[in-house]
Amino acid sequence: MLRPILKYGDPLLHQTAQPVDAITPEITRLLDDMIETMYAAPGIGLAATQVGVPLRIFVVDLSVGRDPDALMTLINPEFVSREDMQIEEEGCLSAPGFTASVARPGRIVIRGLDRAGEPRTHEGEGLLARAFQHEMDHLDGTVFIDRLRGIKRDMIVRKIRKLTRAGKW
Ligand code: NI
């Protein structure tokens, strides 16, 4: 089932997600819905926070469904290591139409539980490292726009306010 993706400015996007206690049928359903919603958007990552569920879960698939091995589900993820730095343009399904350059770690090792509750460790660099950090940020209530400073941030926030006032956000 597709779930609506919350947009920047929704207070639910700015809450800190809580750890998952047990992988219940509700959690499995949430995961299926998140994957379906991510592919439909289409996007390469989605955090539970973005569909209004404050739990520490995210999904990432750089292939957007083309490669079944590329789908990663992380429950209660935590960083094992973060190294280097990259600055690239990124966007977010919660801020459609906007992109900005954001500094992120260049290489990340992250661990979490998969949908069966088994511990998994994933390594990523480049875009994958960026996606891991971006989704982890969502679980801590941070959208990439919150990481911007100065004129770029003001410009995006102002445009979003304008769209909101016009009922187009
Ligand atoms: Ni995002």
Topology:
Blueprint: H1 25-40, E1 45-47, E2 57-60, E3 72-83, E4 86-91, E5 99-104, E6 107-113, E7 119-125, H2 127-139, H3 150-165
Antiparallel strand pairs: 1-2, 2-3, 3-6, 4-5, 6-7
Nickel (II) ion (NI) binds at residues 92-94, 134, 138.
Describe this structure in words.
This protein has a single domain, classed as Peptide deformylase (Peptide Deformylase). The strands form two sheets. The chain has a five-stranded antiparallel β-sheet with strand order 1-2-3-6-7, with helices on both faces. Strands 4-5 form a two-stranded antiparallel ribbon. It has helices at residues 25-40, 127-139, 150-165; strands at 45-47, 57-60, 72-83, 86-91, 99-104, 107-113, 119-125. The chain is built from three helices and seven strands, in the order αβββββββαα. The two termini are 22 Å apart. Helices cover 27% and strands 27% of the residues. The chain has 169 residues and is of the alpha+beta class. A hairpin with a 7-residue loop joins strand 4 and strand 5. The site of nickel (II) ion (NI) has 5 residues, from helix 2.
Give a brief outline of the structure.
The chain has helices at 25-40, 127-139, 150-165; strands at residues 45-47, 57-60, 72-83, 86-91, 99-104, 107-113, 119-125. With 169 residues, it is α+β, with helices and mostly antiparallel strands. A hairpin with a 7-residue loop joins strand 4 (86-91) and strand 5.
Q: What percent of residues adopt helix (DSSP H or I)?
A: 25-40%
Major β-sheet strand ordering: 1-2-3-6-7
First-to-last CA distance: 22 Å
What fold name stands as the CATH topology? Peptide Deformylase
Supply the helix-strand structural class.
alpha+beta
Q: What is the radius of gyration computed over CA atoms, rounded to a whole number of angstroms?
A: 15 Å
User: What's the total count of β strands?
Assistant: 7
What is the residue-mean pLDDT, rounded to a whole number? 97
Largest sheet: 5 strands, antiparallel
How are helices and strands ordered from N to C? HEEEEEEEHH
Could you say how many structural domains there are in total? 1
Oligomeric state of the chains present here? single chain
Task: Give me the CATH architecture, please.
Answer: Alpha-Beta Complex
In one word, what is the shape? globular
